[in-house]
Amino acid sequence: MSERNFQKYYMRVKRANVKENDDDSSQKVSKNKSCINKESHLCSISDTLEHQIGIETVEQTSETESEPDSIIVHMGADISRSTANSIPLKSKLIDWAQKYNIPNNATSDLLKLLQNYVGEDLPLDARTLLHTARVVNLKEVMPGQYYHFGLQQAIVHILSSQQNYFKNINVLEINVNVDGLPLSKSSSSQVYPILISIVGEIKCVAMVGLYHGYDKPKNSNEFLYNFMQDAVKLTYNGLEANGKHFQVKIKAIICDAPAKSFVKCIRGHTGYSSCSKCYIRGSFKDKMYFREIDNLVLRTDEQFRAKNDEDHHTGYSILEEIPNLDMINSFPLDYMHLVCLGMVKKILYLLCFGTPQTKIPHAKVTAISQSLLNLSSNIPIEFNRKPRSLSDLKRWKATEFRQVLFYTGPIIFKKHLSPDRYLNFLCLHVAFSILSSQRHSSLLPYATELLKFFVKTFQQLYGITNTSHNVHNLLHIADDVKLHGPIDNFSAFEFENFLQSILKSLRKNEKPLQQIVKRYSEKIERLENRQASTNLPLLKHEHRNGPLIENCDLNAQQFKAVSFEKFTLKLVLQIIAAF
């Protein structure tokens, strides 16, 4: 590895970190006076690298939640800079390589360069440093391959990383997610991960298994077989972890409509008998639509297992073998796909790109876009994204549609939509504000009636043929809230964040399944060796730039952000107006 390439990987870290002040820079230079010519430069780099890796953090803004900071300090903890510097260089290198997804050959070359300039004993190969698995045993699942991490291992990983939270919990309720993820825009390469989380305040996702192929698995039962075996065993026997016994229950399987029809072996969302909650039969006029609103006959677990509606089923699902899994109620409707990427997106598309009967004038579309952009500077950092123009609507993400539903929509649409369309949207907004709140659970009947009124007026305003599978299922989501709690308890948002980390773990097109398995195993190995801090509040982004109040210790630690359970306070260069 040339000096130039070495500097490239080093500068990736340096640019992301807060710049050191001039005094610190002079100290680093003086510390390495003994080095001359090229060796002098390498000594300086290695010393700086040892000083910076894992101490200062990178501020990230993305669709997904950023990874935990390398060093996070609890407000009550007495942690000095010398303590941070006492962390072994080997541990800092592991964090650095994983955080920035450094290729193994670059990490190996860095290790070899550091051998002569640091006192600590370091391995010469990145695979030894990161404990990379040498062999990945894959199972053939047509038309691709599958790797099984194990349900018990996934649960134990979550328990180990959050030991304090689970001290007083004896029953683990598991949410499961199955969804497809394309790996490339230029090919049909795709993965289908099986993900889990444990129901509760701690949002931590682990991977049970992973399929890769150039088409989805042909047989869902073959794909889910190992997961089903693990689920049956753990449901009957429970598991031992952290010195105590836990009971295990599969609480919910959360999927979008195509994935749900795949794992349950039922008709897809374009079928006549596609509703997974009731016996409504759709009508077809250019596209499938569902007319009825009242007097819907609900499906039951017993009827599903008896296959009494033959047109609804396409086969037998192996998931029926999991004890206490209700094949109707254990498959709640996910509002990320149903409402954010479904209903809200549909309304905006009808307004912007619909038929002459549904769309609004271009001048109003422009005015709405400008209003969204005007709000951008007033959006706090708790939101993953700032509002964008409707000209970018086809590239909007789920969080942006959620922002319109809960926050910006009622403000923006009031001036630009007709009263009847604005009232229609407000019904959706108020209903889901209720469904997302534990505090307002007593208003569930009102939310149910609001959604019925929304569907009825939607048919009148936008046409009955636009009453798609998603629109119809709004009539059922309140029932899922009664069983599972607020909609965020069974949404796919936390799993969607994890899917993005899978994409980031790919370094080349060759052998994607093996790459993902190795990168994920490396992270698990690292996390199991240190317990994640759940103490709040957390101080982040240490700096040394002041200003300090009078009589303050000049050596006191300074930070740029403090995170509480549901919000963050952060130093910025400008005053942000209240939203």
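The above is record 1. Record 2 follows with the same two-line structure.
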Amino acid sequence: MELSWSVRFDTLTTGKIMKKLVAALALPLLIAACGRFHNEDAGQPEVEAASTHNEVASIVQCITDEAKKHNATYKQTPIPQGTMLEFGDSNVVKVRYDNGETTYRFYPGERHVSNMWIEGAGKKCAP
């Protein structure tokens, strides 16, 4: 009789311990997953450069030349006073001329090794 009670007690205790252990291990995993999918830069430009020397067309041409070097596909769309380039995965570049200056803005989306060149192109084409 005594043996069966202790086995039952150990099983219940082990079950409670396992539930607590699973909960303790799942919490950091959940937090890491939220951090992976949260984009704190969403809607805000990461790179913003203003210049009075470069024209919109020359900056856009430079960026599209860089895209061709990297075999990247893009969609070019006219926007008021400028041009928007969409590179997929929500990576967007906007180049505008407004109030006497040319503005370059890069809105980063999901980053991959294949699209890291976009940030470098901004530094090269719109210094």
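The radius of gyration is 26 Å.
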